[in-house]
Amino acid sequence: MEETTESTTGYSHEPVQNSGTCTVNIESDQCTTNAEEEETAPADVSSYDWLSIVDMLGLQKHPAELVPGDVVGKELPLLEMWECFYTTYSRSVGFGIRIHTTSSNESRGLWRREWACARQGFRREKFLSPADRKRRPRDCTRCGCTACLHVLKSLSGNSWKVQRFDTNHNHVLAAQEHLQFLRSNRKVTSSQASQIRTYKYAGLRTCDIVNLMVQQAGGFERLGFTRKDAYNKAAAMHRAETVETDSEGLLGYLASKIDSTDPTLYAKYAIDEEDRLCHIFWSDSGCQRDYMCFSDVLAFDTTYRSNAFNKPLVMFVGVNNHFQTCVFGFALLLNEKIESYKWVLETFLDCMHRRQPAVVVTDGDAAMKAAIILCFPDSTHRLCGWHLSTNATSNIKSPDFTKAFRKLLNNGMPCWINSNCTTMRGLLQRMGRDCIGQKHF
To answer: Which of 176, 217, 268, 344 is deepest in the core (most CB within 10 A)?
Structure first.
């Protein structure tokens, strides 16, 4: 993807490579976290008939009466047929299933699959008591059950053969009246999803839609899904139908400002290899005029991920001739690395016609300092007085020193300091006897 750049009166965007360890997508309202292990549910196998499958296998027993010897070594032409077989078998016996392992390679494609009882294995230790847990943990359902169906693809690729069929369970099986509530047996069909969508368009709430569908089906036991499944399906359909995301809304708002009220507004953004918004910078005409007049000192800092998207917000500020704060621009960044700061500083220079500030004031961040050296070689870099004062207060436990240090920062050297204390060294010597024993002295 090539870089594209436009004039300062419009948009420009460029693709960037995502250098972070994770991808942050502000175009989505969702956030995915690994709070719990994901289970993979079997696919829809309703198009296959149980009777035709058992005829092909030559089985005469009821599904609940099958033993490993009846199935091991048997072959079927399609993997979906074995999935239909095991789904029907599990429903007859009284347990849920999930896909446990899958193997594939370039030459043969998918060649191995194993379905297991939903209670196979144990929950990992990191999911039992994570330090950052925000929700009530799910109930532990894993108990180390060994029941499974393991099939392999033949070398010719024309059939799938059973290698292992385990029927042993170490837990109580579900009663027949509860089978429809097992996860592998629950599904919102396409017709039911269409019905939910129609009712939502008519203005009905999801809870009322579920109650109506329960009455139509004759009870929850005949509905085929739970109330939570209906809420999840309605939310998924709503997300799929939502065209404009928050990032698109922001870009649209800036575009409307350029077209209507502020034609000189400058906005530039960067996208990653998946066309997701990484960085964005904007500055209106008033901000640009202020910088042309008051570019002596530029202060910028990041409010550490305090917005809804958990992204650093950078504010470029200065002071005017009345010592009032004036804002020069804003930026949202992907992370706080050198590459991100370099991008935003170069963009700031482009916006301000390559005019560098005389002094840059920051909080001393290492990545920020490195980017300033690269982008503002002619500017003097200084640390923020507030941060210096805060560090002095927290590290040197002397009220007199803190008071004198703040006066030194705010008022300068002369006037208030007597002849015995005309330098910082003199201040430290004067206050040193009050700070004896502290590690900074």
So the answer is: 344
Compute the half-sphere exposure of residue 296: CA atoms within 13 Å on the CB side of its CA: 6
Helix (H, G, I), strand (E, B) or coil at 198: helix
Sign of CA dihedral 304, 308, 309, 313: negative
CA-to-CA distance for 374 and 221, rounded, in angstroms? 67
Measured distance CA(441)–CA(401) in Å, rounded: 12
Question: 């296959």: which residue's tokens?
Answer: 48
Rounded Cα gap, residues 113 and 125, in angstroms:
26
Q: What distances in angstroms separate CA 80 from CA 71, 113, 118, one per listed residue?
A: 16, 11, 19
- Greatest C-alpha distance within the chain: 108
Which pTM value belongs to this model? 0.45
What is the Cα Rg of the chain in Å? 33
Q: Between 308 and 115, whose confidence is greater?
A: 115
Helix, strand or coil for residue 264? coil
